[in-house]
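Table S2 (continued). Query chain:
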Amino acid sequence: MAEPGETGSTDLMYHCPNCGNDFAVDEHKDEEPCPVCDFVCDREKCLTHYASKEDY
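Corresponding output:
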């Protein structure tokens, strides 16, 4: 039932702005690629990854 990367703690959810995939990250990194489309986070746009959830 556990998914890859699940540690039992509350993980941050990263929303990929390129493909829309949501996945957990232990610690957000600037160059953490999306496991689905390999989009790489841009630090300057990082806030939009989390704020985009308000746009649904």
